[in-house]
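User: Hey, my collaborator sent me this sequence without any context and asked if I could get a structure. I don't really work with proteins. Can you help?
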Amino acid sequence: MQGEELGLLLKQERGQFLDFVSAYEYKKGAAQKKPGEQLARDLVRLLAGMANADGGTLLVGVEPDKSVTGIPCQPEELQAMAHSPQMLLNPPLNPSCEKMRLGNLLLLKFEVSPSMEVHRVAGGRTFYRIATENPSLPPEQILNLKESKKHFFYERQHVLDASWEDLDSAAIEDFAEKTKELREPRSLLGQVYHLVDNSREKISLTMAALLLFAKDPSRWHPRCGIDFVKYEGTERRHGSSLNVIKRIRFEAPLSRLIDEAVGRIKEQMRERTILHDLFFRERLEYPTFAWQEALVNAVAHRDYSLSGASVEVWMFDDRIEVRSPGLPPSPVTIDQLRQQKRVHFARNPLLVRALADLGYLREMGEGIPRMFQEMDHHGLRPPEFSTEGFFFTVVLHNTPIYDEATLRWLNQFGASTINFRQRRLLAYAYSHGKSFSTADYQNVGEVDRDTAYRDIRSMVKLGIVVPLKPKSRTYRIIERL
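Assistant: No problem. I've predicted the 3D structure and written it out in structure-token form, which is a compact way to encode the shape of the chain:
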């Protein structure tokens, strides 16, 4: 069993919920055993980052390329390593620790759940896991994180009158199959995902377990589904002018809810015919990734303690609005989202881990920036974010801001080549005489002169634009396809 479990872990890539730590360091091409204190510091930093975020698994004795090299330590050193999270973190952390063997190589597997507390390295920094990175947090973010963790309780609360029979066994089997887990269901939900407590005679279920797998989720949460409404026109009207065309209520355990909603909502989207590479092609009015990411985020990150409201999707002729109960948790701000900052914080870390392993949340911290890229790539306005009452809203518009010729020319430059400001400027120049000035860049990009100068110099080096004259502040674009 251990060999199979280890094989499945090694098939996965490093990410939000998995990382590897080598017991060796490499100097001048030669492998040397890491000093015990250094190895302990490496692993407690990662475990603290995972505990402060969404939890996860750490394998010690594996290289970054996933080759297994083992831990060349004596039993007393292994014992000290296993206890290092309790000794080197404040407050102490108590992850599960298991010895694993691959042939004659010894490894340690740590599993940690998302913590209600914020853990820091004793006398040092506080770490937080974002995808494959483990940055230390500045003081103001640590305070925000502590405040936000006070609201973790809802998904973790144990529902006294719920029993294992209230869960949909088929949904759990589908989950185990998709996550390629070999453990029996109760062990899987308890030891790996911390959704149930098996320590007592009667199994105890968390609210997260019921939201994910209950036969009847609405019994435990009256508004945990998705309400879809399609309107005629560009605004909501009431009374005798009511303009609702379609209304659909989606109710299912969260492990199935998103797929059901995506399939039915997609049917309501219009297709538009575009000319691409001399062929007419059909394309949905919204980029698939953008609207589905907004919907997944709404389900995963909503405030479920607001039990009187559902996730809402409103579709108008010119836009789609995805409305999620609950304001962004304090480490995340509207300005950060608008600026496409790489941010991640889970209000519901137990739900987030399960949904991520089902494939819905693969790009921790990257989803919002990619939404901007997808909208821009399709020639559409960037996503809009706002709050109204206790709802957080994402708005996607379907009206193109570039004509087809401009968009076709722009799309020769990948997102990794030019940034959003440069792309807007090139689109402006393409339709305004194929030239622009530094002042034009400042106005269109809404930036200061120094930023405009850096961005323009970058495009000059890439061969995208050239000065009209030596030392000129006016440039022309190079038309190339």
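In plain terms: The chain has four domains: 2-137, 155-219, 226-397, 413-477. You can pass these tokens on to your collaborator as they are.
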